[in-house]
């Protein structure tokens, strides 16, 4: 009896994919990865937008932006020259007064954002007549902190009229000269680099200059 030839059977479900099928599968995988990446980007963008909205609502509803406080902390007269003055002479048109005043200013920021201010000046006056000014450079104040700034002002009586000089002469004769100072800084409070609010801190101070000791006393700022 003759033996029949035996041939191995092909395993079930085993087939060779064509190049086209491989390319289509790879393209489908790439598209799936792009969709996942796009969803992640959109989710991250939505989270950022939501975070910004929450911060804006919190800042506008909860946070109250406070105007920083601008004050004179201390002041002193380092040089004084007073000439052509006689106590018994009611006419003091020839009176000449020159003072050098050094002052330390403070800018107190009570907000949770930094305060950036522009340069400005502080005026010093006698009975409404400006004697001189001190210049303040621009700068920044960190959140919830106080910055100290020093400046020098040269005060003189050259711009006073005869009546003002007469009153100045009497006050100098009494030994005490009352001065006022005023300033307004322009700046912005910035929170999380998104929210900005303009603020104008004002300085309004009074002080007495004791001529004999060249001391500043009774310094008071509103």
TrEMBL record:
A GO cellular-component term linked to this record: membrane
The primary site where this protein sits is membrane
Read off the InterPro entries from this record.
NDR1-like
Cell compartments where the protein resides: Membrane
GO terms (BP aspect):
defense response to other organism
- The keyword 4Fe-4S is assigned to this record: no
Q: Which domain of life is it from?
A: Eukaryota
Protein's name according to its UniProt entry: Late embryogenesis abundant protein LEA-2 subgroup domain-containing protein
Can you name the source organism? Cannabis sativa
What lineage, starting at the top, does this entry show? Answer: Eukaryota, Viridiplantae, Streptophyta, Embryophyta, Tracheophyta
């Amino acid at each position: 009896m003759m033996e029949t030839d035996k041939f191995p059977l092909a395993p079930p479900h085993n087939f060779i994919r064509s190049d086209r099928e491989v390319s289509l599968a790879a393209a489908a995988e790439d598209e799936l990865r792009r969709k996942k990446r796009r969803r992640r980007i959109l989710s991250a963008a939505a989270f950022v937008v939501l975070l910004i909205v929450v911060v804006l609502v919190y800042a506008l509803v909860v946070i109250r932006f406070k105007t920083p406080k601008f004050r004179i902390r201390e002041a002193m007269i380092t040089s004084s020259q007073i000439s052509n003055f006689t106590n018994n002479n009611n006419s003091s048109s020839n009176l000449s007064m020159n003072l050098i005043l050094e002052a330390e200013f403070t800018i107190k920021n009570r907000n949770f954002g930094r305060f950036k201010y522009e340069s400005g000046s502080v005026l010093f006056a006698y009975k409404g007549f400006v004697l001189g000014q001190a210049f303040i450079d621009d700068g920044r104040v960190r959140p919830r902190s106080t910055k100290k700034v020093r400046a020098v002002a040269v005060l003189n009586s050259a711009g006073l009229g005869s009546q003002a000089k007469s009153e100045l002469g009497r006050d100098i004769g009494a030994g005490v000269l009352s001065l006022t100072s005023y300033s307004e800084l322009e700046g912005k409070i910035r929170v999380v680099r998104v929210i900005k609010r303009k603020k104008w801190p004002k300085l309004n101070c009074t002080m007495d200059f004791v001529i004999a000791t060249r001391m500043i006393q009774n310094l008071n700022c509103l």
